[in-house]
């Protein structure tokens, strides 16, 4: 599919590999030992300008934990000024006052992962003591400030209180709560090689992800399928280029043609769940799933 036939509307911008949490299920393999990568602030602003020029509508800043990136406010302001809608996917444990101000000023939307209604269980997943208290408090603060926020309840352990977690978010006033299970990427793979079969199949359709090294991927989970690097070529050349066509053909060979949306709703604000789910997912909504024993990766930036 050519760039003319497949417009680029959305991009994940993974500005850092650094995270203050260390979840076993992290698809990005981020941790407190992560770095901000090779992309400079100027590289990111240039890339944001290229996205806007290509007609993109939305960007989502992710990590690692994006609020640990020292220039996040600058990038949010730049993206907003370029006419892009901005969402930040954060664990909400590290929000400074000036960042709240930027969220408000730029109309930022937030998304977060939530593991339990109990602090003990949530903190066991994040391996960060006090993370539940801080995340929950900042969910409430965001809503009190009128900042839109989506929650992703991810099932990590057998018997986890996922239903109660979803209910707790709803009680706080979160209107959109989604969920997902394991995909064998990052630390969740337990050393297994990533496979196209475990992607949803909608990769590179109107969306891409850009990592802290400048690599461009068809989605955040498909980081083993690099389609180019913005430090070496303009995004417009990468999008619809030869390498992207090769990767798209490989994905289509496994999943078939015609995918038109991404899944689950934690990833893209504008899309909903697909069916059927990929083999390792099976069900996208933890509020309805029974006996969830698998871990989850989507919607978990840490």
TrEMBL record:
The keyword Flavoprotein does not apply. InterPro entries: 4Fe4S-binding_SPASM_dom, Aldolase_TIM, Radical_SAM_PqqE_MftC-like, rSAM, rSAM_sf. Pfam families: Radical_SAM, SPASM. Keywords: Iron, Iron-sulfur, Metal-binding, S-adenosyl-L-methionine. Residues 202-248 form the 4Fe4S-binding SPASM domain. It comes from the Bacteria. GO terms for molecular function: catalytic activity; iron-sulfur cluster binding; metal ion binding. Residues 14-148 form the Radical SAM core domain. This is Radical SAM protein. The lineage of its organism: Bacteria, Bacillati, Actinomycetota, Actinomycetes, Kitasatosporales.
């Amino acid at each position: 599919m050519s760039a003319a036939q497949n417009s680029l509307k959305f991009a994940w911008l993974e500005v850092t590999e650094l995270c203050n949490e260390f979840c076993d299920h992290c698809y990005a393999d981020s941790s407190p030992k992560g770095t901000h990568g090779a992309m400079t602030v100027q590289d990111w602003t240039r890339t944001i300008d290229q996205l806007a020029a290509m007609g993109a509508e939305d960007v989502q800043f992710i990590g690692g934990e994006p609020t640990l990136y020292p220039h996040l406010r600058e990038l949010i302001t730049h993206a907003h000024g370029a006419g892009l809608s901005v969402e930040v996917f954060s664990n909400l444990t590290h929000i400074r006052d000036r960042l709240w101000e930027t969220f408000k000023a730029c109309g930022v939307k937030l998304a977060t992962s939530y593991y339990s209604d109990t602090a003990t269980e949530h903190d066991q997943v994040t391996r960060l003591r006090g993370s539940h208290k801080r995340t929950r408090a900042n969910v409430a603060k965001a809503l009190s400030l009128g900042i839109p926020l989506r929650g992703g309840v991810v099932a990590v352990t057998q018997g986890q209180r996922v239903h109660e977690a979803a209910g707790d978010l709803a009680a706080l006033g979160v209107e959109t709560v989604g969920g997902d299970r394991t995909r064998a990427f990052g630390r969740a793979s337990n050393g297994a090689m990533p496979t196209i079969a475990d992607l949803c199949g909608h990769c590179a359709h109107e969306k891409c992800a850009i990592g802290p090294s400048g690599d461009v991927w068809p989605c955040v989970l498909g980081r083993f399928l690099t389609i180019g690097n913005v430090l070496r070529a303009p995004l417009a050349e990468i999008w619809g280029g030869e390498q992207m066509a090769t990767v798209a053909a490989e994905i289509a060979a496994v999943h078939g043609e015609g995918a038109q949306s991404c899944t689950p709703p934690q990833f893209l604000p504008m899309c909903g769940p697909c069916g059927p789910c990929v083999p390792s997912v099976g069900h996208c909504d933890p509020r309805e799933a029974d006996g969830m024993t698998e871990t989850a990766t989507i919607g978990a930036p840490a």
